[in-house]
Amino acid sequence: MKVNDFVIKFANVNGSGSASANSLFAKAVFRMGVPVAPKNIFPSNIQGLPTWFEVRVNGNGYLGRREGIDLMVAMNPQSWADDLASIVPGGYLLYDSTFIREIERDDIKTIGVPLTKLCNERFTVPRERQLFKNVAYVGALTALLDMDFEVVKGMVSEQFKGKEKLIEPNIDALELGRQYSLQHFDCPLDVRVETSDAVGNQILMEGNAAVGLGCVYAGVTVAAWYPITPSTSVAEAFDMYCHKLRVEKETGRKKFAVIQAEDELAAIGMVIGANWNGARAFTATSGPGISLMSEFLGLAYFAEVPSVLVNIQRGGPSTGMPTRTQQSDITACAYASHGDTKHVLIFPSNPSECFEFTIEAFDLAERLQTPVIMMSDLDLGMNEWTTSALKIDESRQWDRGKVLDAEELEKVEQFGRYLDVDGDGIPYRTYPGTHPEKGAFFTRGTSHNEYAGYTEDGSVNVRIMERLLKKFNTAKELVPQPVFGQKKQSSTLGLVYFGTTDIAIPETMGLLKEKEIRLDTMRIRAFPFCNEVEKFINDHEQVFLVEQNRDGQMRSLLITECEINPAKIVPILNYDGFPITAKSIVDMISKYLGETKTKVEAGNFAAE
């Protein structure tokens, strides 16, 4: 019997209203105290093509994507053959027996529920029949998996709070599927959900929602954006939270501005202008938007204007796979724009870090006076994750960086906007209008000297460029530091990862342990790389680097920036648009060790 350890997949037609029912199932399992990992796998068109909703249920907290489906809820004739083939031997198929009579596999267990017939008999409105059919199969699952039905009913009441007339028919549809299953099948199956306390104080949240809320707590007042999947919900979340938290109760005055620009160029231009004027502003986009914004990013870098950009990465190149996930914008963002530019990148791996790192991004941008790009992706941004509760420090003071007011400017004989006073590469700045005489308005994106005066003197340009590099090196100690899986070196082999690949690592390490392969681990959380990142790689004979792109972009960045021998870093790559699995990581590592005849015992070295 599989208790709190299975993968269920719902196969539907896009636009059929199934998403809310599938999400209801995942949230009900979570409400029962069991960790879940829902994945909404949807097409890039509006309606008609196949869509899937995959939920991994695992009481041990292994929530990375896993191969093989234990229970398939197949509601789409178009994808029937593939859906059927994905079920593991001995697994279950739940289908609408109104239309289907014969199943082409004899190594799985079938559960035929005449969902269409039941709903046609109970409901009269055609649209309701379709929608309630989705709810009815959730009702069937509550019986088959022995779920707490009161929890599910309670969630329906919560979902339709304020729309009470919808509660009763939805519960009726749940009962329809549940009673049919109880009457016609041996319930529960040998796959079931059991109430647990494994969730603890964790929450279920989307990464994009966490970013939007983080912007509010970071003091952001301006968002300028152009809609693009999968980043649109960042701006929508910011707008929603602002309406709750940034509207004066007495007057109804809104203390924020959300601007939908005509394109990505306009959006980033507005953000740079707002930040230059002293506001905290951001934009959100994806790969194609990064390409369009690159010239303006170069301006912000050279003029040294704080800016925050949230990049929700998707499949590329070109339009690519807009509704699939990748980590394929790393080099594009690190060196965005022409000429010698280097940008600060931050890599969150869960919604809690999305919230925390968003707040940190604005402090970094103002402290360093430079663009900061947060590198999320579709998987993290648009799916709900089991994550630790968000930590809100109400006493936190924003770091506005080196900003001079009028009184401080009076003490300065000659204000140098691009002058390195403290030796850290970071100059002082002012807000427009601070002082009528001492250069408070001045900023320059062309070649300039330390006092913002235009120059084509090559030696002066060298000084400015070298100071920018010094500032970038200063950033190494300010950005989020790497996370290590051990206190001291215990193996000659290392495993490096970043971003959403983190969710597959706990299970990966368990599988490697079964094979008697030991690796030290390090999660990179920012670029530029601090000294500890370089040291970890140099201290190990071989390092495996997990990333979700074809060309090993993080590997290239490490080799270039840390001057590491390319042979030392073995790429573990995945770029099919789906999150990498623990099994595929282990298979690639095992294959490499076998092909190179590297003895596994080498990884069992214990450092003195």
Please outline the helices and strands.
Blueprint: E1 2-3, E2 5-13, H1 18-31, E3 36-41, E4 50-58, E5 69-74, H2 80-85, E6 87-96, E7 109-113, H3 115-122, H4 126-144, H5 149-159, H6 167-184, E8 191-192, E9 203-206, H7 207-217, E10 222-225, H8 232-245, E11 257-260, H9 264-276, E12 281-285, H10 287-303, E13 307-313, H11 330-334, E14 344-346, H12 351-368, E15 371-377, H13 378-382, E16 384-387, H14 406-410, H15 458-474, E17 483-484, E18 493-498, H16 505-514, E19 520-524, E20 526-527, H17 531-539, E21 542-547, H18 553-562, E22 569-573, H19 582-595
Parallel strand pairs: 1-8, 2-5, 5-6, 6-7, 10-11, 10-12, 12-13, 13-15, 14-15, 18-19, 18-21, 21-22
Antiparallel strand pairs: 2-4, 3-4, 9-16, 14-20, 17-19
Number of helices: 19
Task: State the distance separating the first and last CA atoms.
Answer: 44 Å
Q: Helix fraction? A: 25-40%
The tally of strands reads 22
How confident overall, as mean pLDDT?
Answer: 94
Widest sheet: strand ordering? 11-10-12-13-15-14-20
Highest-level CATH class of the largest domain: Alpha Beta
CATH topology of the largest domain: Pyruvate-ferredoxin Oxidoreductase, domain 3
For the record, the count of structural domains works out to 4
Percentage of residues in DSSP E strands = 15-25%
Looking at this structure, what is the CATH superfamily of the largest domain? Answer: Pyruvate-ferredoxin oxidoreductase, PFOR, domain III
Q: Helix/strand/pairing class, anyone?
A: alpha/beta
Low-confidence stretches: none
Q: The biggest beta sheet, please?
A: 7 strands, mixed
> What CATH architecture of the largest domain do you see?
3-Layer(aba) Sandwich
Label the overall shape.
globular
Radius of gyration of CA atoms, rounded to a whole number: 27 Å
